[in-house]
Structures are given as structure tokens and as C-alpha cells.
Amino acid sequence: MKRITPLLLLAACTATPPAQAEPAPLPGCAAALAYSKAHGGLALLVLEDGAVRCRTPDISTPQELWSGTKSLVGLMAAAAVQDGLLVLDEKASDTLAEWRSDPGKSTITLRQLLSMTSGQPSAIGRPQGYADSLKVPLSAAPGTRFQYGPTPLQIFGEVMRRKLKATGQNPDPQEYLDRRLLVPLGVRTGEWRKGADGKPLMPQGLVLAASEWAKIGEFVRAGGKQDGKPLVDPVAFADLFEGSSVNPAYGLTWWLPRPSLSNDPVTRATDITEHSTELPADMVVAAGAGDQRLYVIPSRRLTIVRQAKLDIMALAAGKKSGWSDTRFLELLLAD
Question: Which regions of 8-144 does DSSP assign to beta strands (E)?
Fold first, then answer.
């Protein structure tokens, strides 16, 4: 028997382990990459069980998420439920005293703000500040119509600001989200733009690299848990992915592959509602202008990040990009 000397033991301990072979690309990777590139794609990253199965060369340059930011606000709400700061069905007027005398606004719940059913009119563009958002008149009775826009989440930002301040915490919602979720998940932000009032924009404004956005997707794929422990309230987390009666295709800041009768222009901008039966039923999507996407498909063990150039002029003119979520996923998921 060969004698094991201290020198041999040291060599064994310090030897460079053999390189691990990277998993082969998904069969549909090349076609998905080509489709994304043809539609202004900048970055694409596909993780299967956390391993890279498809990617562009650059996944580390931070890009604007635009309305993909909204879905992090839903996660922040679930963290706030766990911390006892709020419950989803409480009235916003419990915190916003100036709404208590308004017959319509006094009835709005936090759930309705997050599901875009709180009654503020649809709008696209730069959000008003928190205080001015509180003053926006309602164009529908709360709970009766899906109206996608920045105002409800700016209002939610003000609710969070006041609740944090009332409990002696830093009142900045961005700092809370960083501390509660992004730092624990190891997510490095490129930037978070602020509004004219100096407060972080809740409906848009977060800048993340594809590699960092994927960490959030993996957290969602894991059921809101890190190392098997929930970082957010489990019931509130599940509620994020339940559509409303007026738009089953939109949960609490997350898009869902469900049929929808909503005539909202943003709902019509994605074809996952028209092709819902062709897509994985458990898929959830964070989506932003310019076809920014984070797809999470637990049944397929997949997290998919797609980032693209945003043509502001074309968007303002109402020109369609030609992007199809269904076609992209059909190509990527082909056997």
C-alpha cells in the first residue's frame, strides 16, 4: 500500500479540480437567440435548475427594466406582509388620511393598487410624484376595471414610505427593498431612477443586468424562499400570481398566461393572453416597455431573462415592435 506522506496530502488538497463541463445549450437556444436579436435584443439568459442553458455574450451590462420594476414592488409588498407592516386587503386610507373623506378613494385596498384595479386612469409615460399621484381623480369605481398605469404604484410607494416612517425605519421604499430582498439575494443594482420629487419610481426606474434579474427569477422559481426559508409571506407571495376578476391575466404586479377580456392597451401588447392554452400554466412574467421580459416557469425549471433596446419614438407613436412572447417561447422550448 502506498504510504500517504504530508507532501502527498498537501498536493491532493491543493490540486486544481477538473473543470466542470457546461451543460449543452437547449435545443431551441440558437433559434431563440436569433429571434431576440432580430427584434432588438441586447441580452438573453436562460437558466435551467440554475445552470446556464442559453445566453448572449453580454449578460452583465445593466439595462432599464422599465415596467419590469413593478414586479419587484409586488415582492416588496409580500415582504412587508411578513414584517407586519401591512395586509393586502387593508384600505389605503388607513394610512393615507387625506383619502378618508373621499367616497371612492376611501374604499381602495392595497390589493387593488397592486392589481391596477384601484380606479386611477390608464397612462403611459413618466409618473407623477408620490404626493401628486394621490390627487389623481378616479375614472372608474375601485375594483371594476383594469387600468394599467404608473399612478397606483406611486401611491403604493407613498403608503410604504409612511408605514416605514411610522415604525421608525428608513422611510425610503428602495432602501427597504434593498435590505429585505435584493441584498440577501445578492442582486447588484445598476441604478434606480427617481422622480421629480426625489423619491424612487415604483412603476419603473430599476436598471439591472440580465445576470442580476435572473437572481430575482430564481427566487420566484424557488417559491419566495432562500435556502429553503421564506423571505416573504408565503400567502402574500402566492397572491402575487392570482389574477383579478376584471383581468385574470394580471396578478399583483405580475403577468399571467390567462385569457382576458381587458381592452387595456398594455394587456393587448402581449400575446400570452391569446395563446394561454399553449403556454405553461404556471408561467409568470415581469414585463417592461421595449419587450423587457423575465419569464419564470417552475414546471420546466426555467428562469428566462430577455432585454432589448427601447425605441422611445416608436413607442410614443404606437408602433408595434413585432415581438411575440408566444413565438419566442415556442422557439426556445422546442424539443
Answer: 41-48, 51-55, 63-64
Q: What is the pLDDT of residues 203-214, one digit of tens each?
A: 999 999 999 999
pLDDT in tens, 88-119: 999 999 999 999 999 999 999 999 999 999 99
Q: Give the C-alpha separation, 108 to 99, whole Å.
A: 9
Widest Cα–Cα separation across the chain: 89
Contact between 46 and 55 under an 8 Å Cβ cutoff? The reply is yes
User: Rounded to two decimals, what is the model's pTM?
Assistant: 0.92
Rounded mean pLDDT, 139-147: 97
Write down the number of H helices and E strands in the chain. Answer: 12, 10
d(CA 249, CA 244): 8
Q: What share of the chain is helix, strand, coil (3-state, %, to 5)?
A: 35, 15, 50
Q: What is the pLDDT of residue 266?
A: 87
Task: State the DSSP string of 178-214.
Answer: IIIIITTTTPPPSEE-B-TTSSBPSSS-EEE-HHHHH
Q: What is the pLDDT of residue 21?
A: 65
Cα–Cα distance between 77 and 73 in angstroms, integer? 6
User: Are 208 and 43 in contact, with CB atoms under 8 Å apart?
Assistant: no
> 76 in the Ramachandran plot: left (φ > 0), alpha (ψ -120 to 50) or beta?
alpha
Query: Cα(180)–Cα(231) distance, rounded to whole angstroms?
Result: 8
